[in-house]
Amino acid sequence: MTRTARSGRRLAAIAATVAVLATAACSAPVQNKGDDGASGGATSMLIAADNGSPTFDRNFNPYSSGKRNTTTYMYEPLVIINEMSGEETPWLATGYEQPDARTVVFTIRDGVTWSDGEPLTAEDVKYSFDLVKKHPEMDLKGAWSHLESVEVDGTTVVAHLQTENVPAAKILAQQLIVPEHIWAEVEDPVTWTNEEPVGSGPYTLGEFTPNQYTLKKNPTYWQADKVAVEELVQPAANSELDIVNNGYDWAYAFMSDIEDTWVKADPENNTYWFPAGAPISLIPNMTKAPYDDVDFRKGIALALDKQVIADKAEQGYVDRASQTGLMLPNQEKVLDTSIPNQGYVDQDVDAALASFEKAGYTKKGDKLVDSAGKPLKINITTPNGWSDWLQGVEQVKSQLTAIGIDVTVVQPQPAAYQKELRTGDFDMIMGTVGGSGQPFQDYNGLMGSEFLLPVGKTAAGNFGRFESKQADDLLAQLKVTTDEAEQLELTHQLEQITYEQLPMIALFYGGSWGLFSNKNFTGWPSADDPYASPKTWDSTPLLILTHLEPAQG
Amino acid sequence: MRYALRKLGLLVLTLWAAVTLNFVIPRLMPGSPADAAIAKLAQNGPVTPSVQAAIEAQLGMPGGSIWDQYVAYLNNVIHLDFGVSYTFFPQQVSELVAGALPWTLIMVGAVTVIAFVLGTLIGIGAAWKRGTWMDSLPTVGGSFLSAFPYFWTALLIVFFLGYVLGWFPTSGAYSATAVPNLSWEFLGDVLYHAALPAATILLTSLGGWILGMRNTMINTLGDDYVTFAEANGLRGRTVAIRYAARNAILPNLTGFGMALGGVVGGSLLVEQVFAYPGVGYLLFNAVTNQDFPLMQALFLMITVSVLLANFLVEILYGVLDPRTRR
User: What is the rounded CA–CA span in Å between residue A303 and residue A307?
Assistant: First the structure.
């Protein structure tokens, strides 16, 4: 070895030591700088509405699946639908009419401008529909599976539907509207990331870095007087510890032991609301025995204590779900009161055993066996890593084991789970059903023959492959009637079918995890005033952002 | 020279095998990218049929037969074109990797070099002064620290130094409002943010280097030529460094080559805990989202750099140890 090589190595060692010392020294003087983003003053709000993974891509294309969550604070729909209750709030349209079951007429609001000062017109609305027709990849609401054509008539937009289809109005109403004068010049709108968004919403993009971005109030917004928050600050990192420690105003997060974490951080101001979302259910595969037997499905439903399952899965934050498929209590208005106990199925082991017996399974020793004496075995599929669902399934397993059924829990990776769900490759599988708050959409997705495909083919709905002529007839009628009383009556009948035929076994409500602070702003949605879901994506946050008021004192 | 050529031939063969495996393995995973994207959305509530259709159209599926895909893939690999990421649609894979790589190279790379140099030096010292406190302290301390899993150390550090004491930032590579530039202020900010993840990796990896070096060195110190050198009255330091350490360092050097090659893979768990925007985090996203293009690019980058680093170490071996050249 030569001398220079040796001294070189020694030099490297010295350099390395210096580097370590320098790192240590550097950290001292900037100790107090912190990373906590905004101060959360009276006009600014710190939110955890969007999560970097770990940093933000600058994508504000409202039709892109990879868009920033807050894109919908800048681009607005015609009507906002509160999916918890089905309630509608006219937005860019002042309202809509359905002169017949194949036509929807939207009246476009006057005096709305884009954030660059150009007026928003009916032409922009038509353009937005035509854009997603040309690029089906961007048709996230599925408008063109119902639409035939769209035309402008003065300040109204007339949508012609392919068939008589009354519920389609609510789908079309949720279409996000973009400015034609900007988008017409974009070469490929599908991959365009729209870095400088021009929208009609209450906020425009402020400063953007991969670690944090801000949204500034749009001073020319058409209801600017209702927007109290001047600035929204959205950091990329919002771990549970960040949310508890850094004084967030609004966060969407599932947090263990909420009273001792989020509430304890600021007991005077921090509140939470976890309303019921779509029912999380066991979906039986109704193409094979014994799951195709309604008595068998009833037996399963009767064997389970769903509140215990809910408490295990979601730490007592949500309640058991009604077997009607409705989200109670928010959907109480459409509930058929003739259904006993609001559709909640209580645990009743004797009734369960009787029902299993009708399905051909009898108790032998401590096992349920079929006529040939073979013990009953069930596989339940749930995605790997979704720990709350798994906790629920483990509880299902122990309750079914107690009644004498052999249960195996299968946990494929989420992508594989999704594939098995859609292709019908399961005995019973965990899944969410419904949840849009619109009876036609929810029941159609649960039982509609429209989605019915043989096992092995990739379905988009009706994953349990439920077949019922009666349900189909009701859905067909519900699709074409404009009479509200008749709609309600048909919805009641669909609830009864779901309750009696059990196309799914409802377990518990998926929660929406809203954390709010009343320190700077008040008027958050709550159980007393459930005007919007606490979720931070899609269009319902617009209801919240136009509802907040500065805190008093 | 023939030695180097032989090694080069082997390198090309392993490269081809790695590239091909890299093509095959992601395709053996069950479920499609669209399934993964929908499953991710489904965690927040039900996904309507129309959203499913739009996502499938947006992400598309690799077209053509497997063979066509393979040929197209080889062609793209040669041109370093990996296409568009599924997870971060519509971003280019090459842009994503280019964005993450510097952070990993700076943080993980520097720490790996520091840990190797520091660990090897301490190991030499420990072996030379074996039986004294200079031996027992680093040996016991090193094995204690390296027995901790990475992420556990990381969690402890982030909780106590980051949240309880608030001395260090808990996430990111630089402050939320900073804009990357070449100023001293920004550089300080970067070092400040890198401190905790770097300390985690240093603490957990140092022990391995110390123990490895110390144990081989103690063996070497028992050899006749070392005794001979000492008997000749050479200075202690000369014997330790030029006679014993030069021979004892070979296994550690192999380890270093591997570690250096592995640097580009980032440090998945540590980057996760500290939300550090490096390659490890990117890889995690790619795998959990069935993002074939991104996964292929990352795995390829990792295998190629491990192979290259090993190749270089083998060449270096030839220089350091004449026996291997035969």
Answer: 12
Point out which residues pair with A215 in neighbouring strands. A205, A232
* Residues B125 and B325: beta-carbon distance below 8 Å: no
Q: Hey, which residues 500-529 in chain A have their CB within 8 Å of chain B?
A: 510, 512
Residues of B within 8 A of A207 (CB-CB) are 177
**Chain CA centroid to CA B189, Å:** 23
B138-177 residues touching A, CB cutoff 8 A: 159, 163, 166-172, 174-177
DSSP assignments along A441-477, one per residue: HHHHHHH-GGG---TTS--SS-TT----HHHHHHHHH
Residue A2 at interface with chain B, using a CB cutoff of 8 Å: no
Q: What is B93-325's CATH number? A: 1.10.3720.10
**Looking at residue A228, what DSSP letter applies?**
-
DSSP calls for A312-350:
HHHTTSS-BPPTTS--TTTTGGG--TTSGGGG-----HH
Per-residue tens of pLDDT for chain A, all 553 residues:
333 333 333 444 444 433 433 333 333 322 222 333 344 346 899 999 998 878 898 999 999 888 999 999 999 999 999 988 889 999 999 999 999 999 999 999 999 999 999 999 999 999 999 999 999 888 888 899 899 999 999 999 999 999 999 999 999 999 999 999 999 999 999 989 999 999 999 999 999 988 899 999 999 999 999 999 999 999 988 888 889 888 899 999 988 899 999 999 999 999 999 998 899 999 999 999 899 999 999 999 999 999 999 999 999 999 999 999 999 888 999 999 999 999 999 999 999 999 999 999 999 989 999 989 999 999 999 999 888 999 999 999 999 999 999 999 999 988 889 999 999 999 999 999 988 889 999 999 999 999 999 999 988 899 999 999 999 999 999 999 989 999 999 999 999 999 999 999 999 999 899 999 999 999 999 999 999 999 999 999 999 999 999 998 6
CA distances from A66 to A191, A418, B59 (A): 10, 19, 11
Phi, psi (deg, nearest 5) at residue B199: -60, -40
The minimum CA-CA distance between B132 and chain A, rounded to whole Å, is 23
Rounded to two decimals, the ipTM of the complex is 0.79
Give the predicted TM-score (pTM) of the model: 0.84
Cβ contact A464:A85 at 8 Å: no
Torsion angle in degrees (nearest 10) through CA of A304, A307, A312, A313: 90
Tokens of A514: 């809203």
User: CB–CB of A114/A178 below 8 Å?
Assistant: no
Q: Would you tell me which residues 139-158 of chain A have a C-beta closer than 8 angstroms to some C-beta of chain B? A: 139-143, 145
Owner of token pair 């990896």: B205
Q: How far is CA A147 from CA A178, A261, A301, B154, in A?
A: 19, 48, 40, 54
Three-class SS of A10-44: HHHHHHHHHHHHHHHHHHCCCHHHCCCCCCCCCCE
Cβ neighbours of A158 (radius 10 Å): 17
Burial class (CB in 10 A: 0-12, 13-18, 19+), B103: buried
- 3-state SS, residue A425: coil
Determine which of B171, B179, B190 to mutate to test the interface with A (most A C-beta atoms within 10 Å).
B171
Domain with CATH 1.10.3720.10 in chain B: 93-325
For residue A246, give the chain B residue with the closest CA: B163
